[in-house]
Q: What sequence folds into this?
């Protein structure tokens, strides 16, 4: 029975998707003559009005049927308007405007129906995923596809009706339950995490409280995957200091620092991204927790590795190249090349960081503290001095100390 109902809904959905596009096309091209019989958008919408008794039998589509009937009336009225008088011209303009407005309403009604059906399907899939089910693989694949569709839908921008549907259905709590359920596959949990991230982007003011009060952050950290850390980093950027405060109060800073020791390079790199974001938004307690976990020693070690290096050397090479290029050029030519040279410098830096993700990582961390939002000026100076002091204990040679300290002192020029 459920399978038959699903197929029927899919048929209606296919028709409505095509008609939604037709409505959108009608709005996008209002200059075209809507009275022409070969107008595909008008033709498609009027055909639906003719067959509305069979296709639009769902009571929730009653308003759509009303809009289609009104559209038919407007088109017929426009057909009867003829002549070249000012009055006829104004009538045509008014009717055309009304048709476009009705097309907007039709598109909105169709999207609302699609959203209702989709949210209903998503909730059923979230509830229906039972480990003992003989169709577990099929149900898992269905849920993953629905979660990806949900991410795409909320990424289209804020929609109040969609938000009401999400809140009424308790989608956030359902996604969180999937995320914390270690019995589910990593793919389902990761897609649930991306869906939660999508809701924060959709409307941070509404959903941020649920992130801070629930188990989302703890679950993301415990998963320890590149996808979960990508979501965590994004959430820190979106929610800022309140989220870092939550991480610190839950004593999760050591776990995040631990990602820098991972054997998985992607986890290491994304862990470092999280460290940089915490450095930018973290208050005194969070930075102290990172210092206590030997963040300076760990970053010096990463900078010393094959994936490390010194960005200051890249800058010096660029300076020498620019000196050579400038010789013999006029002031006018130098001015023309300024924007091009800046682009080249940025490109070289980005290319170098792709190959050496931990280049000057300690200096980059120190810069985040210096320019960030979480610390007072006095605290920034104090932490900078503490970092400079700890560099001596973490380095192997005086030359290494001098290089890294110079980068930290002049980090804003990297």
A:
């Amino acid at each position: 029975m459920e399978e038959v109902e699903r197929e029927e809904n899919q048929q209606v959905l296919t028709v409505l998707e095509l008609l939604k596009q037709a409505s959108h096309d009608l709005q996008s091209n209002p200059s075209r003559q809507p009275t022409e019989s070969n107008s595909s958008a008008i033709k498609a919408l009027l055909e639906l009005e003719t067959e509305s008794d069979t296709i639009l039998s769902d009571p929730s589509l009653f308003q759509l049927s009303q809009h289609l009937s009104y559209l038919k009336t407007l088109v017929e009225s426009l057909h009867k308007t003829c002549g070249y008088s000012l009055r006829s011209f104004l009538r045509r303009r008014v009717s055309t405007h009304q048709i476009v407005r009705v097309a907007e309403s039709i598109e909105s009604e169709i999207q609302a129906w699609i959203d209702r059906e989709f949210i209903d399907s998503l909730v059923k899939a979230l509830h229906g995923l039972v480990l003992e089910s003989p169709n577990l693989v099929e149900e898992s694949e269905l849920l993953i596809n629905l979660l990806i569709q949900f991410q795409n839908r909320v990424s289209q921008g804020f929609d109040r009706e969609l938000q009401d549907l999400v809140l009424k259905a308790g989608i956030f709590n359902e996604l969180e339950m999937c995320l914390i359920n270690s019995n589910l596959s990593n793919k389902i949990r990761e897609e649930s995490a991306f869906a939660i991230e999508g809701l924060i982007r959709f409307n941070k003011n509404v959903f941020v409280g649920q992130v801070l009060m629930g188990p989302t952050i703890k679950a993301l950290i415990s998963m320890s995957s590149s996808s979960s850390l990508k979501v965590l980093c994004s959430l820190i950027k979106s929610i800022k200091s309140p989220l870092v405060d939550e991480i610190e109060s839950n004593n999760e800073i050591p776990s995040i620092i631990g990602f820098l020791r991972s054997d998985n390079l992607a986890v290491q790199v994304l862990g470092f991204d999280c460290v940089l974001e915490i450095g930018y938004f973290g208050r005194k307690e969070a930075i102290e927790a990172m210092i206590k976990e030997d963040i300076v020693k760990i970053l010096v070690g990463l900078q010393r590795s094959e994936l490390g290096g010194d960005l200051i050397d890249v800058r010096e090479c660029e300076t020498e190249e620019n000196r050579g290029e400038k010789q013999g050029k006029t002031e006018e030519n130098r001015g023309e090349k300024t924007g091009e040279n800046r682009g080249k410098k940025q490109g070289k830096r980005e290319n170098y960081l792709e190959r050496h993700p931990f280049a000057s990582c300690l200096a980059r961390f120190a810069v985040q503290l210096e320019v960030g939002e979480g610390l007072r000026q006095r605290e920034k100076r104090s932490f900078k001095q503490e970092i400079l002091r700890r560099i001596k204990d973490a380095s192997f040679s005086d030359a290494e100390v001098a290089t890294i300290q110079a980068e930290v002192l002049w980090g804003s020029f990297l």
The chain is about 80% helix and 0% strand.
